[in-house]
Amino acid sequence: MMPKGLKLTKRSQDDSDRAAEALSKVELVITDCDGTLLYTDKTLGEPAKEAVRNLSAAGVRFTVASSRPGKGMRTIVDTLGIKTPFAAFNGGKLVDPAGWKTMNAHWLARDAAEIALESLARDGIDAWVFIDDQWYITNPAGEYVPLERRTVGYDAVVVKRFEDIDLGSVEKIVASTSNAVLLESKEAEFAGTLKGRATAMRSQSYYLDITHPLANKGEGIRELAKLAGVALENVAVLGDMQNDVAMFDVAGVSIVMGQASAQVQANATFVSSTNDEDGFAGGVNGLLAARKGEKVF
Fold first, then answer.
1. 3-state secondary structure of 5
2. Name one Pfam family in it (predicted).
């Protein structure tokens, strides 16, 4: 039987033998954080911690890739004892936890940042600008400011206008609104107006991330695998949102959380339980069972 919470997606059912073989050969696991590794309340559960310890005991390397700034990942990295490089800003920045040194970074072109900010302001959507580990906002009463403060673990810097900061060194812009339909329309708009200059992808139903074209999780996974000396076919990734599909497309194995949309699930190899039902741990348990030669479906 497949370990609890892990089953083949429709995409993989026609080649189940290959999927099982790929799962058994994983040497590096890279996971999204919010909505995958973490519960919805942003806490890290004991099953996830145990799963990471079990990966280490099995000789499988582990790291994380998130839309968060590097500083906003510190608690996760320290708690799990991650020693290898990890990806922040959707892969736009690689960070070495030894000394918290930036290894590589991609900045938005100034004109792309200006176009995005002007469009968001025109539609009354709260925008946040991230430069290195600093978080800039113009509306401290924004609907999702308290959640982001709790997520990243530090306060934003309030500015009167974004023009007052250096828009030539922006690593990420976030559009935040509970109007999911409006956010989806902005994602479609930016696919045209920012084509070739930026990527706009939802990291949550209420967040739209705008980053450099190379600041995506697919490119981030490529770089992390290269640094680890692991072939992409031997990398497993876990995620839940549209911005995770880029890494699903390049990794040998992809495990999606059960709460992900049907569109996102269609791009993965396996589907696990929801993040709040310990889907991350379920995915890792399935992977480790396959490595032991156990029949997983």
1. coil
2. Hydrolase_3
Give the residue from 211, 238, 259 where a domain finishes.
211
| 103 CB-near residues (< 8 Å, 6+ apart) | 85, 94, 95, 96
59 and 79: one domain?
yes
Residue 53 phi/psi, 5° resolution? -65, -40
Q: Is residue 231 a part of any domain in this protein?
A: yes
Q: 147: Cβ–Cβ under 8 A, 6 or more apart, which residues? A: none
Residue type, 35: G
In our burial notation (b when 16+ CB lie closer than 10 A, e otherwise), range 186-223 reads: bbeebeeebeebbbbbbbbebbbbbbbbebbbbbbbbb
What pLDDT sits at residue 1?
36
88 and 115 in a single domain? The answer is no
Beta strand spans in 106-165 (E): 126-131, 134-137, 157-158
